[in-house]
Amino acid sequence: MCAATVPDIIIGRLPLYLRALSKMASEGNEITSSQELGARLGISSAQIRKDLSQFGEFGKQGTGYNIEFLIDQLRRILHVHQVWDVVLIGAGDLGKAIAHYGGFLDRGFQIVAVFDNDPKKVGQAVGKFTVKDTKTMIEEIQDKKIRVAMLAVPASEAQGIADELVKAGVLAILSYAPTSLKVPEGVRIQYIDPVLHLQRMTYYLP
Amino acid sequence: MCAATVPDIIIGRLPLYLRALSKMASEGNEITSSQELGARLGISSAQIRKDLSQFGEFGKQGTGYNIEFLIDQLRRILHVHQVWDVVLIGAGDLGKAIAHYGGFLDRGFQIVAVFDNDPKKVGQAVGKFTVKDTKTMIEEIQDKKIRVAMLAVPASEAQGIADELVKAGVLAILSYAPTSLKVPEGVRIQYIDPVLHLQRMTYYLP
Question: How far is CA A31 from the centre of its chain?
Answer without folding.
Answer: 26
